[in-house]
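Q: Mind making up any chain with structure tokens?
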Amino acid sequence: MATMPSHGLRLRHLTTTTTTTRPFLRTLHSAQVQVQQQPSKPNKSYFPKRGQTLELVCESLGFKGKGLCKVADTGFVVMCDRALPGERFIGRVTRKKDNYAEVTKVKTISPHWDFVDAPCEYASYCGGCKTQNLSYEAQLRAKEQQVRELVMHVGKFSCEELESLNIMKPIVPCDIQFHYRNKYVIHSKLIFIPTVELITAMYFVVIEKNGILIGTQEWLPKELLLEKQDGSESYALGLHAPGFFDKVLNVNKCYCKVLAAIQGCWRDPQLGISAYNVHSHAGFLKHLMLRTGRDVKTGLPELMVNFVTSSYKPELLKPLVEKISSIPEVVSVMNNVNSSIGNTSVGEEEYTLSGKSAITEILRGLTFQISANSFFQTNTHQAEVLYKLIEECAGLRGDGSEIVLDLFCGTGTIGLTLARKARQVYGYEVVAQAIADACLNAKLNNIYNATFVKGDLNKIDESFGNNFPKPDVVISDPNRPGMHMKLIKFLLKLKAPRIVYVSCNPATCARDLDYLCHGVIDKNLEGCYKLKSLQAVDMFPHTPHIECLPVGALLIHRA
């Protein structure tokens, strides 16, 4: 999760040499914003009131890509969604905290810097790629700056240290800035267009957070409400409305053949397909998942379609299956049955309705088999770039003499790419299915020097490490919460020559770098590593969420 600076430089002036301090970042936690220096006894006028309108100027991007502003004369911190650096606007206070407030933009007075026209007509409304109207160069500067400040204030590395030792590398941009995702999760529900102004809608996700959804209730922007207040009932297939778990912005234009085919017929009442309702828990079709890969022999794209339903009724899906199976790219049609009331796309049972049960993808010269619920990097093109950087940071000699410990190994993608130069790779992961996929991928690529073990790295004890020799290189790729203190202790005791830390959350990454390099005073732990390089890679262009920015950090043991 990204952070929110308490005040910021104007985005066009953000550079890797800036030394501007932002006091609240010194005590920043990944899920909180804290301002360290505040007036000791502010008067009541210091705090804006809920419902109050303010004229504001956005100074920088911060937490979750929200615009960071300051109230004139007082300097009180205000956050506004969809406000971009340099934009002057009128905002209405909707929520007030002790040290900051949130506002909703009412009217733009003058546009922001680095303005570009968003190519998607839904960019102003959906919760996905909402920084499309900010130039890509400006997006990169903002993301790089946030990583730098986190490493300085949370990781406690000085600006001089980062600059003089050339630790902080320039952010790596993504060459493909649109249509880069290889997985889509679409949700399904019934909608009723009410005759009152308050319209409740439905939910849609594209890749875990942003995406296309089929819903029971449709969300409409305020300017379109009057057009739809007819009391009619229909279905929605569209994008997740920001801030709502059960609302969807209907999308009339579709660039995917499969979605277009399904959207054109699934509403037909003769098919008898009912959309699942997240409130009443009634209905049949819950989600539609699309995954793309490549044929190993031809290199041509192949597509998997996965229907997630509340029960197993293949006769209801048969017309849809026949229609989409005629599309040449569709090589696999699956049905995951999820009878629980939860909104997950993972089913308790899985059936193959047409074609293969899995598709393949090629990454760093290796072939990976992807099932309906396998984890795989969502941006395949940029994953090539990221994994190449990991290989370079690992610094394996290539003579087959070194041991690699792959923590949070997932389906083994990183470990297997390093196995070609290592003597042995040992991978640990808590998810059983991921371990099974890792073993399968190793066999598929004729790699026999990789061992994958199921284990919870948050619950290791003193015996962890007895089943493998001391590694020459440790790869750690934790999820957003970062590494548990038990694992930090293990690594400090291990004193491995090199650690490559890969993270989707720069805040917890910076925290863990502080622990590994500077120690943990209250735990009486002494740091024993030195930060050698820090490399940011933009995996998801046009998204403001900093957690989509993997960060690679190379640490070496201080001899």
The longest strand covers residues 100-110.
